[in-house]
Write a structure and sequence with these properties.
Order of helices and strands: HHHEEHHHHHHHHHHHHHHHHHHEE
Radius of gyration: 25 Å
CATH architecture: Orthogonal Bundle
CATH topology: Ammonium transporter fold
CATH class: Mainly Alpha
Largest sheet: 2 strands, antiparallel
Number of helices: 21
Strand content: under 5%
Structural class: mainly alpha
Strand order of the largest sheet: 1-2
Shape: globular
Length: about 475
């Protein structure tokens, strides 16, 4: 067999792609490379809010003995949601309609499907599946915040896929799918004030009721083990919100830019409002309070981010920094019902109350022109204040109708999550206890996982020998060949 060298390269000869690798295969005509790149970046930013954002925030915000378990609950949920999402969750949420509140069961794994154009946006289904996954994952991780410090990890392992399947997918299909019942009614939920924050707040509070409280001494005193670490997680959460709200126009558009700016303006205003209230009433500038104010601002603006003006974002920040502050710092302490439920990270106030507030304020402040930019439908969406300002009977009717739809969505999400979260908890309880034993809760991480967050002490020895660790029986070789001495 003779070998002939290839002819010399001639720049005038047009390059020919092999038949099985056409340029249109990698970048089809319908795809916008900038939109696809931004969507993948936005999804990654949202993913970083969970891993490592909330892992770090939870790990630093709880007692030392719960740092590992709290962080691990978030890490586990992120992984489990992804597997469930591509196997059935995405199609239940965004696939073909089975009933007006739910899609048909199907996978999102096949190449032919993943490389096709998504239901909205100039990018493939693979990008959309990943983008929607990180929203689903953070919802479960937010729920975990309500049950930190006592939920049985094995019960959490069962809770995550069940709640995702029977609660999250219903809310996502109803409010975000083009075929959803509330979508067709005209609900405005720009980026998840209903689907994510109101849902996680209500579900977390409901799950906390069924799981039961922490030990009495832990409820009375539960200081963060590392506030600086908690602040690092909070910073990732804040900056990650650029992708959270900026990614939902599904394009690198002017509306995405407006949503990002409104998001950070509202969060900053809310943080400062909460901080001022703490100083005025408690005479202390609380770092933890500032983080709570930041979160309530981010949650409140989420359903409205790209459909309201900057002035409205500031007003929303003032309200999100004061109303949840009042419900948490005043109302909660006076309500026996609220005190009965042990909500570790106060997700009822930071997510359910703030999410409800955001949904209502969206119905008041949304601008028709901005709604048209986002939805591409002229004249369908109009905030109540704009309707009253225009003064015509039709515009006033549109404004009141929008408020009615926003309120209907709030009621639907509350009922859905109370019912489905309760059913999931009751089912899980048939298999494993929802709550750890009092003996194990006295110990914490070592009882749950045989590990502890800050285990190194002095010259490398463990701080204390624990009967729960799997590593205590490992024989340490004496100093000699092959051994390593810790300096």
């Amino acid at each position: 067999m003779s070998f002939s060298p290839p002819p010399p390269f001639n720049i005038t000869t047009p390059f020919a792609f092999p038949p099985n690798l056409l340029p249109s295969d990698a970048s089809p005509r319908w795809m916008n490379k900038a939109d696809n790149a931004w969507q993948l970046m936005a999804a990654t930013l949202v993913g970083l809010q969970s891993v490592p954002g909330l892992i770090i925030l939870y790990g630093g915000a709880v007692k030392k003995k719960w740092a590992v378990n709290s962080a691990f609950m978030a890490l586990y949920a992120f992984a489990m949601v992804l597997v469930c999402w591509v196997c059935w969750g995405y199609q239940l949420s965004f696939g073909d309609q089975l009933i007006p509140i739910w899609g048909k069961v199907d996978v999102a794994l096949e190449q032919k499907y993943l490389l096709e154009q998504a239901f909205v946006g100039l990018f493939p289904n693979a990008t959309m599946v990943f983008f929607q996954f990180v929203f689903a994952a953070i919802t479960l991780i937010l729920i975990a915040g309500a049950v930190l410090g006592r939920m049985n990890f094995y019960a959490w392992m069962l809770f995550v896929p069940l709640w995702l399947t029977f609660s999250y997918t219903v809310g996502a299909f109803t409010i975000w799918s083009v075929n959803g019942w509330l979508t067709k009614m005209g609900i405005i939920d720009y980026s998840g004030g209903y689907v994510i924050h109101l849902s996680s707040g209500v579900a977390g509070f409901t799950a906390a009721y069924w799981v039961g409280p922490r030990l009495t001494k832990d409820r009375e005193r539960f200081p963060p083990n590392n506030i600086i670490l908690m602040l690092a997680g909070a910073g990732l959460l804040w900056m990650g919100w650029t992708g959270f709200n900026g990614g939902d126009p599904y394009a690198a558009s002017v509306d995405a830019s407006l949503a990002v700016l409104n998001t950070h303006v509202c969060a900053a205003t809310s943080l400062l409002t909460w901080l001022i209230l703490d100083v005025v009433f408690f005479k202390k500038a609380s770092v933890i309070g500032a983080v709570q104010g930041m979160i309530t601002g981010l949650v409140c603006i989420t359903p409205a981010a790209g459909v309201v003006q900057g002035y409205s974002a500031i007003l929303m920040g003032l309200l999100s920094g004061s109303i949840p502050w009042f419900t948490m710092m005043v109302l909660h302490k006076k309500s026996k019902l609220l005190q009965k439920v042990d909500d570790t990270m106060a997700v009822l106030h930071t997510h359910a109350i703030a999410g409800t507030l955001g949904g209502l304020l969206t119905g008041l402040f949304s601008e028709p022109h901005l709604c048209e930019l986002f939805y591409g439908v002229p004249g369908k969406y109009m905030g109540l204040f704009e309707g009253l300002h225009r003064g015509t009977s039709q515009s006033v009717s549109y404004g009141f109708r929008q408020m009615g739809v926003q309120i209907t969505g709030i009621l639907f999400v509350i009922v859905l999550n109370v019912v489905m979260t309760s059913l999931v908890c009751l089912f899980v309880q048939l298999i494993v206890p929802l709550r750890m034993s009092d003996e194990d809760m006295e110990v914490g991480d070592e009882a749950a996982h045989g590990e502890e967050a800050y285990a190194i002490w002095g010259q490398g020895e463990r701080l204390e020998n624990s009967r729960f660790s799997n590593y205590n029986d490992i024989e340490v070789p004496s100093k000699g060949a092959g051994s390593i001495e810790l300096a």
